[in-house]
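Researcher: Here's a chain I'd like modeled. Treat it as a single chain, no partners, no ligands.
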Amino acid sequence: MHRLKRWINEAVSSYEEQLKENPIETIAISLSWVFVIIIGLMAVLAYIKFIIDGGYSLSVARIKENGAFASANFTTGTIHIISNNVVWIILGIIIGVQTIVSIILLFAEKEIWKCILFVIDLIAIVFCFVKMVTGQNNSMSEEMRLIYSVVTLIAIIVFFKLLIDSDGSYVFLAEGLGLAAYLIILALILLLENILAIGALAGAIIIIGILVIVGISGSSSKESAGSTSSGGGGSTSHTSVSGNGGVKSRKSDKNTANTPAYQKDSNPNHHYIADYNEILGNKLYKVHGEMGDYVELHNGMTERKICSLAEAESGKHKFYREKTGKEIRVQEIPWK
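Model: Modeled as a single isolated chain. Structure tokens:
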């Protein structure tokens, strides 16, 4: 406690000395830090208000209602507390005062060439800006507009360069750091108040990416397996009647003792489902369709009709788990 008290006393004494030696410069620099401290406290209060008002509960409700990709999930929340006309006017006044102090300190150096160059540069900025604004009504050519824009850009760079190299550089640096700190606080509040929407969006993108990778790798492995089997002397024939990697019908292979059931079954109406009801696997649903009820295969990204529900219930079409060969009864398939 004594150490903290001593540090505070030393900081106050140092500030008083700087204030006596360079009053204008010290006050101008202090404006930025006072503004940032006040904005920081207001940002904390704004975030607390967001939580108390149920901001995160509303975010969850919006995500459930609109889905992960909806722009409506994002909100400005309580950002209006630290970003409004009053705050921007105060910030503009502080920046204006600090810029004027930097210019005064530049002229106080009494370097004639620097003062003359600064005046010429300032006149060039004002002249080019006025010409570009009034030129819109006078149908200025694109070439002239480009020339004025380039000259204005160069003049602004020279303007900042002269202030940075002057005795007012600390004031100008404090001005830039204060503005940057304010923008960072704004971005941080927006991030915290939209963290659930950002997380839902990122999670959905990751899941879709995983599904795409799994789908591509699954297709590649099945294609390579099919080409290897067909090149082994023709003893085993692989035919997918359904045309989907998750549903397989196979012809018999009498020469292999441990041949899976889907390879021994030659009935094209017997469908073997790969990775049935597993994570990122395939699923079956009973669906009410406009032309009648049917059984649908869903692999996480795409869906496809296999047969009518009547054909499945009558036993014309049957479904099995690819790994075990166990039958999937129609009664076990849920409605979509």
